[in-house]
Design a protein that fits this description.
The protein is built from five helices and eight strands. It is of the alpha/beta class. The chain has one domain. A six-stranded parallel beta sheet has the order 3-4-5-6-7-8. A two-stranded antiparallel sheet has the order 1-2.
Amino acid sequence: MKRKFWIFLVAILVGSVLLTACQIQIGNGKTQPVATPSVAFRPGTVLGIQGDATTFNSYPGIPWVRLSYPTCVASDLSGQVLKDTISTYHTQGMRVLLTYCQTNGASLFEMNQLNDIAQVEADAVQCGNEQMKQSATTLYVTPDRFARFFDVCQSAIHAQRPTIPVILGSMDPLVVPDDDAKLMNQVHYLDAMQSAMNSSVHPGGSWNWRSQTLGLIDSWHNGYPV
């Protein structure tokens, strides 16, 4: 019974991942890059790879590329450079997932940057990255602050394009028996975020993390051996 519970829980979490949230629309014999709401789980058709502003390769059978905003890694991928980069990928028939990583202190809610990512015409945006992890290489954010950040980030994006998929941060794919406690810690984090969303961000609201699209780290090839 316990084994079935974990399998069911993992299925729920993985089933929420963005990378299954977008479909490919076929018309006039061509594949068109069109973002759609999260309505179907089609893992066999959603594939992506890490990209950048200098290499615009297209990969047969891989219709998505992921770009990282400078809050994730130092680069010039912001403003017009980012918009032009996304446009170049679009001309190749590829769609773009833009990852926006959380920052420290008051800059977590920096509207200039959030409005920037909302206006560059990415096909999907990930708000936050590995926000639950406390390590030397990740930036942990408490559930209540991340609730506010995600709300501000999503609102900025949907103010420009209401139907664009927005991903709620990213989780670790912890699925082996020894990781049961770590997996439950991620669930507890999301539960605390949900409580904050409905008590302080939108008092009396009914926001539920289970209805959101969750990110999953290393679900796309990022250039590292796997």
